[in-house]
Each structure stands twice: as C-alpha cells, then as structure tokens.
Amino acid sequence: MIPSVVKRFFLATALVCLLVPAAPAADKRPNILLLFPDQMRAEAMGCMGNPDVKTPNLDRMAKEGMLFRRTYANTPVCCPARAILLTGTYPHVNGMVANDLRLRESEVTIAEILRDAGYRTGFIGKWHLDGGPRLPGYIPPGPRRQGFDYWAAYECSHTHFTPYYFRDTPDVIMVQKFEPEASADFAVEFLKNLPKDKPFFLTLQLGPPHDPYGAPTEYTKQYDPEKLTMRKNWQPDSEKSKGGPAIPPKLRYPGLPENPYAPAGGKDEVAAYYAAITAIDDQVGRILKTLKENGQDENTIILFTSDHGDMLGSHGLRRKRKPYQESAGVPGIMRWPAKIPAGKVVDTLYSHVDMPVTLLSLAGLSVPKNMQGSDLSHVALGHTTKGPDAVFQQIFVPFRPDQIEKPWRGIITDRYTYARYQDGAWLLFDNQQDPWQMTNLATDAKSASLIKSLDQKLSAMMKKQGDAWSFNSNELVEEGGRLYKHGTFYTVDEYLQWAKANPDKAK
Fold this sequence. Notes:
Blueprint: H1 4-19, E1 31-38, H2 56-64, E2 66-68, E3 71-72, H3 78-87, H4 91-94, H5 110-116, E4 120-126, E5 150-154, E6 164-165, E7 173-174, H6 179-192, E8 200-209, H7 217-220, H8 267-293, E9 300-304, H9 325-328, E10 333-335, E11 344-346, E12 350-351, H10 355-362, H11 377-380, E13 390-395, E14 408-413, E15 416-421, E16 424-430, H12 448-465, H13 492-501
Parallel strand pairs: 1-8, 1-9, 2-11, 3-12, 4-5, 4-8
Antiparallel strand pairs: 2-10, 6-7, 9-10, 13-14, 14-15, 15-16
C-alpha cells in the first residue's frame, strides 16, 4: 500500500504539471532578433511623433507590435550599455564600468544561455566589448565572443562608408557600401542559411547614426536642414568642426564624395543624422522581407533599441553619458506577430537591464538569478502595463569631451528625472510640467523635500542593486584612448596600476 503522504505528493505534482505549461521544445521556441543602431535617440522615429524623420519600416514594426515610449539606457554610453544588454546585470556587477574595458569571459550572457538551449546564435557589426586596441579589431572564435557562433564583426570603428569585418580568421573583409547595408547583407546571409531544426538569436549592431554624421546622397537629399523642426531645447553651435575625416582616394568608390560627413554643431548634422536613420530603416525593411520570405516572420521576436541617444545640441550639449532625455532615451519597439498584440503603445518604464530577462522569459527559458532587471514579458504580451517604478542610472567615470566632469547616479520615475553627484544634487526635471527639461529644479530651494524623497529612493535602489559610490573613479581613463591604446584591461584599477608603472606610455 502506498502511504497517503506519498499519494498526496504525486497528486500535487500532477496538478502543478497541469497548471504550469511546459517550456516549448527548442525547435518551437521563438526566434529572437535584436536590431541595435549606435547612438539613436528615442525621438528619432515617426512613431514617436517626430514630424521630420522618415522611418516607414520602424513605424510599421511599431504598428504590428508594441511601442515602449519610455525606454532608457541605464548607463548611456557604448560599452557599459552593450554589456548590460548581454548579461542582464549593471556595470558594477559585470565589470564594464567604462568604455574599452574587456568584458570578462566568465560572465554568462544571453547568447550563451540561448546557445545552450539549442539556438543558433549570430553577431553582426560593432562589438566593442573586447578591450585593447580598437584596430584592427579581430576577435577570435572562443570565449571572447561570449556565446556567438556566427560572426561578422569588428571591435570599434566609425568608418561608416568604408566598413570592414572579420569572420573566423584575421583576414580583413572590406565592403564598399554604407555600413547598415553591408551589415544587413550578412544578416540576410545568416537568415537564409539556418538549420531547419533550430531557432535563432541574431543581433545586428550597426555603427550609424553615431557621429561622424553622414549617409549616402540618396538619403541626405531627402532632408533640407532649414526645413527641420528643431527641438525646443536645441541650441546652435554646440560644437564647430568639419564633422568627419575625408575618405582616402584608394578607398573611395563611385558616388562616394571625398568627405561625406556633415559639419558638426548645426542643423546640417541633424539632417545627416536623420538621413542615416532612414538608411537604417530601409535595411530593417529588407530584413523584415527576408523573414517573411523564409517563413520566419510569425515566430520571430524583434527588439529594436539602441545603446544610448545623442544630445545633438539640445541644451547646447553633445553626444551621450547624460541623464537628459536626448541622451538616456532610446527606441523601444517589440514585435512578435504570434504573441505580442499589434498597435499597442505603453508608457511602462523599460530599460536595458530588463531586456535580457524579458526575452528569456518570452522564449520560455529560466532567467538566471543574478540578472537584475524586471521581467516585462507580461507587458509585452498585453496582459498589463505595470512595470518598474523607476529606472536606475549610473555613470562611473568622467569624460570631459561629453561635458561629464564627475561620476553620477540617477533615477527616472513616472514623473521625474533626477541625478546627483556623490556630494550633492545635480539635475531634477518634472517631465510632466517640463517635457523639454528646461528648468532644473535641483537648484530651487522649494524642491528640497522632493529632492530628499528622490535621494531616499535612489539610495534604496543603489543598496538593492549592490551599487556604491566607491565603484567610481575620478581618473580620466576614457580620454585620449588611454584604456585601449597600449593594452587590454578588465578593470579601471588594473589600468591605473599599469599606468603607474608606465607613466611615459600612459600620458
């Protein structure tokens, strides 16, 4: 006779099995496609209300999927943002607290998790997680590729009109096309040569619209700088330069002018920025068409986002690393025809650290306990709009070319953007009353109680995530190529020890 306690155990187990759906088999799981241009701010799409930029394919993706209007970079600068997206952890955990460090091979990435679950993984474009000299930029097969099998990539280069790639050997593959088209060529190759019994995870990480700002003539002629609707907080002459290097004669191909880049600091660069985005949009359309032709469209989750935005003269400021909307806000489009409801727009707070968690959950896979983001799969599936009550932001080192003099921490709530240095409040905006962030309430004595409340919330978030001001460095490690000119470093402290022992080289 079976003891009653054992019977109860088996009955309970059977009930749980009936109530909890089994994870889909590997060949039934959704494909995942991460489309990821560099330095593209949230507002640079028609579906976000921009009256000038032409993004018909991105707008269509938003109509056929879900638009997360409030999507943010937790650390709005290249390498830390990319590391967050791969690991689901903040930089003080994964180690990528500054540009041009190497992501530790011991980190567990979403690519490794998906590969081990039976996915064919692929990476195309700008990697920027290997540290050391940026050029030539070959990353050999093995653990430094962090779980990606298919490879057509480079470490870091902003030669948008003369892109080059590496596959599985150090041989340079130079492509005489605008980088988004060249990278999309590899994406189409990947999609057309997939095994029939495996889902795929492909990320396409494009160089444009990152500065220097430029695009092929067929796109730039679509934009008249003088007819653009400039943001209310935009200021001219935030920077004055010719904008980009001339293309050497030996690399110039038919139709490519000597200098295809727009001068910086005026409306011309904004027009060129939009032109590059329209060029990217065309390649998004091409990839969507390929998915449709291959019968992969219905069961492919597409996430379109970016590592950070671009100030482009808003508030008279440049580039990234800032809590301002133009720098911290990034695109957030999710499309999965089989499951994600079409045409839904949400204001749920969504950030990079949430993305790996959400994608793994949508794929029916377990999320590692060390991942620090929120699972927004129920939002993506249309069951709720409830999400985190704040986005946590961090910058760990100064960078004077981007007007960042000191490390900072911040939060973005449903209503406020708040950032502080260790020694005091820096920026506070009421985004409901002041959507252009023109009035800094951090200097207003009337805001003292609000600042105190936000400081308490920020401190609680730092404690919860294991962050501390001691993770910062005031050394100018990112300036002048210090972290990548002479060697490969995993931490800022490792570099500083090297610099101390090699003072002449470290200048």
